Structures are given as C-alpha cells and as structure tokens.
Amino acid sequence: MNHRRANSLLVSAVLVALLAGESAAWRRRRQTCSPINCQWGPWTSWSSCSYQCGAFGTRTRTRPYSPAASCGGAACSGSNSETEDCNRFCPNGSPYQAGCDCTGTGYTGTCCDVDADECALGTDICHEHATCTNTPGSFTCTCNGGYSGDGYTCSPNEVDECALGTHTCHAAATCTNTPGSFTCACNSGYTGDGNTCTDNDECTLGTASCHEHATCTNTPGGFTCDCNGGYTGDGSTCTDVNECDEGTDTCDEHATCTNTPGSFTCACNGGFTGDGFTCTDIDECAEGTDTCDEDATCTNTPGSFTCACNGGYTGDGNTCTDNDECALGTDTCHAAATCTNTPGSFTCACDSGYNGDGNTCTDIDECAEGTDTCDEHATCTNTPGSYTCACDDPYTGGGYSCTVSCSDLYPGLHPAGNFGEFRGQCFWSSSHRNPKLDYTAARQACGLYGGTLAMIKDDATQRFLKNHLKGTSGRTQRNYWIGLDDLNSERSFLWNDGSPLGSYRRFRSSAPHRIRDCVVLWRTARLAHWDIKSCDLTMAYICQLAGGS
Q1: Do 48 and 75 contact (CB within 8 A), yes or no?
Q2: What is this structure's pTM?
Q3: Judging by DSSP bridges, how do beta strands 378-383 and 361-363 pair with one another?
Q4: CA 432 to chain centre
Q5: Which domains does the chain have, with CATH numbers?
Q6: Which of 420, 398, 391 is nearest to 407 (CA)?
Q7: 69 Cβ partners below 8 Å, 6+ apart?
C-alpha cells in the first residue's frame, strides 16, 4: 500500500510540473493585450424616498464601471451603490415608524399635514350658546349674541337689544326681544329670515290686483297700478278709449280709423298708399294699375284716375274701338295714294309710279330718272303713274327685252350667213368671196366695226369657232387670222385687247420661230389648231364684235 501510494504521488508531482511548465508557456504565448484598470462612472440620481415621512425613509443611487477591468488590469475599489436616510421629519407631531404621531397636534394624516376641523367633527369644547370657529391645528369659541363669557362658558345677558338698537334685524323687519336674545321677522311685502329681507315683487309674482289693461309697478313692500295707453280708470278697473270717435287719432285725412282695444288702426283709403298715418296718392297711370284701354290716355286724380280714348278711337276710355278712316272716307290721302287703316289712325302711301308723302303725290318720270326697266335698245315714254317701252330699229321685242341679229347690227359685213353669236358677242368669218388680208389689214378691218380679231381664251370658244366655220356659207378656208401676236416682244404673245396669253393654248407646234409673229386658226374637217405665221401673208380672218344684247 505504501509503495503504490509513493508511486502515485510521484506521478502526480511529475504531472503537476509538466502542467505548470506548459501553462506558463501558454500564458506567454496568449499575452497579446495591455491591462486595463477598472474605473467608476458618475453616480445616478437618487431614487425616490421609500416613505413620505417618519423614521424609516431611505433612498439609493448607483454607479457603473467605466470601463471594467480587463487583460489583467486592477479591479475597482468600493461599492457600486450607496443608501442614505430621507424624509425623517414631521411638519406637525413626531416621527413614528413609517409615519408621524399626530397626538395633540390638531392635525391628522400619515404625515400630520391635514388640519382637523374640530368644529365639524364635534370634538371642540365650546359652550352650547357659543360659536366654534376652526383654525389651523385648533379652534376658537365665541359666545353668541345675548350671552357673555370666554366661549367655553357663556351666561345670558338681560339686555333689550330691540330697544337699544343693537339687534341685527333688517330695516324692513320687526325686532322682538327674548330672554338673552331677540328675534327678527320680515314685514308684510318682504321675504327673508329677518336679518335679511327682500322685497316681494308682486308684479312678477302675479299677486298684484291690477287690471289686465294696466301696468303694475313694484314699490318697496307694495305696488301701483296704472291704466295702459288707450285706456282710462284707476288701474284696478280700466276702460277702452275710442280715439276714432273722440278725434284723438293721428290717421291721415285720406285714411280710415278703426278703434281697437286700447288703440286704433289707420288704413289708407283706396287710391292711396302708406302706413295710414301718412297716405300718398297712388298714380295708377304711372304704375300701370289703371283699367284704361291700351288705346286710351290715363289721367291721374287724387285717389283715382280717368280714361279718355285717344284720337282715332271711340269709347268710354275703359274700352276703345278703332275708327276706320279709310272706310269712313275721313282720311286725307291723295287720289293717287292708297289709304291703309292702322290702330287709331291711317297711313297714306303713294301708288306705284308716284312720289310723295301720301297726302300729296307727284307722278314719277321713270324715263327721265332712269328707273324704268326698258331694254337699252328701246325708247321709254312716261305715262301718269307709269311708262311704256318700244324697241328701237332694228331691234324687235316688247320693249323690256329687245333683240337683234348680228347681221342686222353689221349690215356692211357679207355674207350674212357667216355670222355666229356666242356669249352675247358676234363672230364673223370672211369667205372665199372676200379678199384675203395680211394680219394688220385684217385687224383694221375688224376695228372698223369696233371689234378685234377673234380671241380664243378658252376651250369653249375654240369649240364654238370650229363648229361655226363648218356652217358658214361659201367654201371654208384652212387658215384664219385670230387676234394673237408677239409683235411687241418675241415669244410674249398678247391678245388684241392687250391681255397676255394665258394657260389655254392650242399651238400645233412648239418649235421656235423668229419671223412668224402672228397666229392663225388652222383647221381641217376634224381638227383645229393654232399656227404661227408671217404677218405679211394674206389669209381669211375672223372678227369678234359687240353683240346686240
């Protein structure tokens, strides 16, 4: 046993040595931070006291580590909390355990801070004929009126306060002496305890005896009654006054007075307006409340109005009937005028063909004034109230429309069958019987009759001339001068009336030219085109002349 124990102790010693050596080495390897000593942070505020008052109150405060010890640093010394006494006082009484002892202080409550009202609690020692008055922590005693003493003991006084005037009765009360005191009773017409008396308002309480039409006025200890306006009497009895019969009303002279209980009313008579005290005449005519006929004149009168039919009407003014002057023959219209009846009158209008105001009418010479509708080729002849038209030679027709053929207008141009009319103008083409002319001579030949060579400014005119040439008498020609040339400026073509060539053109060729400056209408049985030719060539030609319309 001893041997085994020795071996065991040996092994243990070796292990301890090894472990000790390893721990020191290990600690050397691990020691990589600097030691930090512990420090205290600031104290917190004191906590609330554990009791409001007495002998046991305490309060506590604490402080934190800031910082705590680390890496082998020194620990903080001292405690992290501390406690102290608090509220160990009593405003009244003395500290006792967790409160105060209030015995004999006149106060109550945990901390003896509430006054004890001995008078209310009945713990006072005042005499039965004394008045107790509470004071902070105590009370006082005062003998009542009629008694004397220190309040704890009171004896009655043998004094007549009523006779001496030392009583406290109200001026409107009666004082009655009693042993050691007195009593007060409010007089009639007053209410109260005798020390204070308030006047009874009989008017408000409804205990007054005034008439229903009287006014009650309260007085100290009584009341008065006075009849209201419009009534007469002593206030207890009141009778209505009839102002209308007595003439004491203030109604307007144009108003009616009506008596009412205690007063009167005024109402303006018919035809007047106002409050009855002041009445103003109503102008029914101006306000449109009259009953006059619309064709009558209203005239205002005091309180009413009159109606009279206007001129041209008959009736009583309330109903008016129009006079038909035209039918009665009382109009003043001229014999050549038409009379038209109108409401209350008539109008005169001169008949057609006459001028004037209807009362006087004068014949209009339409021919001289140019207001006739005769054709420009007719002669106008004035007649009473009208005129006649007759066509001039060689025109024919009714005078308002006169026509004439182109051949009659231009008898110097032959053959007559070569005339055609289009858009109110005459077109004439020369034939093989007529001499051919150069461009200038042809233009002059047309100018002798106030015309020009034909101007083909649109397709309709082109088609007309093409068809017209088919129907002319004699042999038709292939080329006809028309009124188009560029004699003034090369390739700037102008029509004979001076207007430039527009967008419509029917040139057979657009090849340039130099000498050929005048245009002909070149035609076949099917075609019709324009060609530019030398103006010196002699050709047939077409004239465009004014028509007869």
Answers
A1: no
A2: 0.36
A3: unpaired
A4: 91
A5: 43-69+77-116 (no CATH), 243-281 (2.10.25), 284-322 (2.10.25.10), 325-363 (2.10.25), 367-397 (no CATH), 405-546 (3.10.100.10)
A6: 420
A7: 36, 37, 38, 75, 76
Q: How many CB atoms neighbour CB 162 within 10 A? A: 17
User: What are 224-233's pLDDT values in tens digits?
Assistant: 999 998 899 9
Instruction: List phi, psi (to 5°) of 120.
Output: -75, -35
What are the pLDDT digits (tens) for 161-203? 899 888 999 999 999 988 778 899 999 889 999 899 998 898 9
Planar angle of CA 353, 354, 355, nearest 5 degrees: 135
Containing H/E element for 284?
A: helix 284-287
Nearest to 185 by CA among 165, 203, 167: 167
Task: Give the amino acid at 67.
Answer: P
pLDDT at 23: 46
Token pair recorded at residue 334: 């001229």
Q: How far apart are CA 332 and CA 132, in angstroms?
A: 125
Phi, psi at 81, each rounded to 5° = -150, 155
Higher pLDDT, 477 or 325: 325
Given a cut of 50, whether residue 6 has pLDDT beyond it is no
Which residues neighbour 274 within 8 Å (Cβ) at sequence distance 6 or greater? Answer: 252, 255, 268, 280
The alpha-helical segments, DSSP class H, found in 85-125 are 118-121
Return d(Cα 340, Cα 344) in angstroms, integer: 11
106 vs 54: CA distance, rounded Å? 18
CA 292 → CA 309, 316, 318, 540, distances in Å?
A: 9, 9, 4, 91
How far is it, in rounded angstroms, from Cα 248 to Cα 240?
13
| Bridge partner residues of 108 (DSSP) | 114
Whole-angstrom Cα distance, residue 99 to residue 91? Answer: 11
Residues 6+ apart with CB under 8 A from 260: none
How many whole angstroms separate alpha carbon 542 and alpha carbon 434? 12
96-105, 326-335, 430-439, 526-535: least confidently modelled range: 96-105
Report the C-alpha gap between 289 and 267 in whole angstroms. Answer: 19
Model pLDDT for residues 338-378, shown as the tens digit of each residue: 999 999 899 999 999 999 999 999 999 999 999 999 998 99
Residue 25 has pLDDT above 80, yes or no: no
Contact (Cβ atoms closer than 8 angstroms) between residue 380 and residue 372:
yes
Question: Which residues pair with residue 531 across a beta bridge?
Answer: 520
Least confident interval from 18-22, 86-90, 101-105, 532-536: 18-22
Residues 6 or more apart in contact with residue 503 via CB below 8 angstroms:
none
